[in-house]
Amino acid sequence: MKVAVIGGSVGNLAAAIRLAREGIEVSIYEKREHMGGKLRAVQLQGYDFEIGPTMVTAPEVIEAFITSTGRNIKDYLEIRRVRHHTQNIFPQTSSFFLSSDRAFMRKQLQKLDAEGARNYDMFLAEIMKMKQAFEEIMALPPLIAWRQLLMPPARSAYLTLKPFETLDHFVRRYFTNEEVISSFTRYASYNGIAPDDAPALFIIHAYDELINGVYYVAGGNLRLVRALQQIAKEEGVRYYTSKEVTKIHVQADEVEGVCLNDELSLEADAVLMSVEDFKAQPQLISDAEVLLPDPMKPTGIAACVMLVALRTHKQIYQHHIVYSKDRVREFELLKRGEIPDDPTVYLYNPAFSEQERFMRGDALLIFANMPYTANEQLVETMKQRIYKKLEEVGLKLEDDVVTKQVWSPGELMTMFDQYRQSGQVKKTAQYLLNPVLKDCQLKRLYFTGLQTHPTAGLASAVKNGERVAKRMIEELSVKKDGYG
Ligand SMILES: Cc1cc2nc3c(=O)[nH]c(=O)nc-3n(C[C@H](O)[C@H](O)[C@H](O)COP(=O)(O)OP(=O)(O)OC[C@H]3O[C@@H](n4cnc5c(N)ncnc54)[C@H](O)[C@@H]3O)c2cc1C
Known about the structure:
16 helices, binds flavin-adenine dinucleotide, alpha/beta, FAD/NAD(P)-binding domain, Alpha-Beta Plaits, 37% helix
């Protein structure tokens, strides 16, 4: 039994490990020079940057996965907690920290939002209920049609997710202070979606930030990829980089192999890849007449990303956000395709937790939402506005820059296959129906990947990889015994 896996992402590595442990022959083909998908390293003049996922959440999922392979996580990687992980800075007055320390959060709220302080436990209780409901739906066999959500066994969990409420409305039920509201609605705005357009479901992010905690991998989050790669190797998975799958061979309605770099055809009993990659590359199956209901397109609101190496260390938290004075106007401009004059700026500073890795100075990942464009002049203007915005709150970076790199939304799209569809507003049901584990039209084509999901993350990629592998093992063992 042979499985071809397209892409060396975290989710695919987890699935490959699980399949290999069942005696299945697994080969991973990654088109880039490195494994790890969106999680990747960049070096600039000796400074180490990591781009893509910056926040590690639910480490227990990663640990449980490694333990289930008969290994001890300590032999592979160390995941550490960041206590007060996010500082939200508001131009006029205060700053508001996010932490999973409830007493600390209540104390802060008492100063900023007395009603919010009283409501805080109820707020967390509702988030926990929603998280549980979400997990219940994820554990069901894949739901394909909207009406399935309104019927048992999904119905009760679906309604708990407040499908008809916006994120903004949800947060305002508990808090009155606009700065606190901005901090808890950024789960949408960070993704380029206005909080009053986003479904309440986005609040599930707060489960990790405020209840379960935020973490990082000692030595860099990329070590998670290295660990999974090592385990995959030990389990006999073969992986190849710089090998692009250019075609999935299909006979009638069954997958029967892949073609590498338009040259080499290889047989496979099943193929596994990320659902977003599949939607973005319809040419992979153009010979087969398969209807793609929801092809991926670049969307209006994207981001400008800057990597900035400093010769000093600044007072910047692991996750650090400097808010626009007027977030409603910021989104009005973004929706009209204009760059915001006063942007909200997001910073990631790994030196906050591991200064020993950054002796020369901070290596900052900075980004702000901007319309989708490859226009260099607009990107330069955006860069200047980001610096100006940071300067307003006392973060004068320009004089201390050793080197930097700026990526336009267009470049990001090319470099990272940015199909995340930032800025695309969906309803709750669309998020729940999105994670299709197996394509309905082609037999033995399986999917990982939940990047467009509001709760997407490295841990959920691992979980999803395990889930699809389990399904494949069940179905493919039927084939091994004579079917197909
Ligand atoms: C900007 C951004 C920020 C994020 N921040 C966080 C965060 O803070 N915390 C968190 O936990 N998660 C975060 N995520 C989500 C996280 O990145 C993903 O959940 C994670 O990368 C897992 O993705 P994946 O396994 O679905 O695939 P991906 O990481 O997308 O990997 C897919 C791989 O397939 C390869 N590939 C595609 N097509 C082919 C082909 N035809 N042939 C060969 N190879 C191919 C690609 O090169 C890539 O390596 C973020 C995502 C983005 C985009």
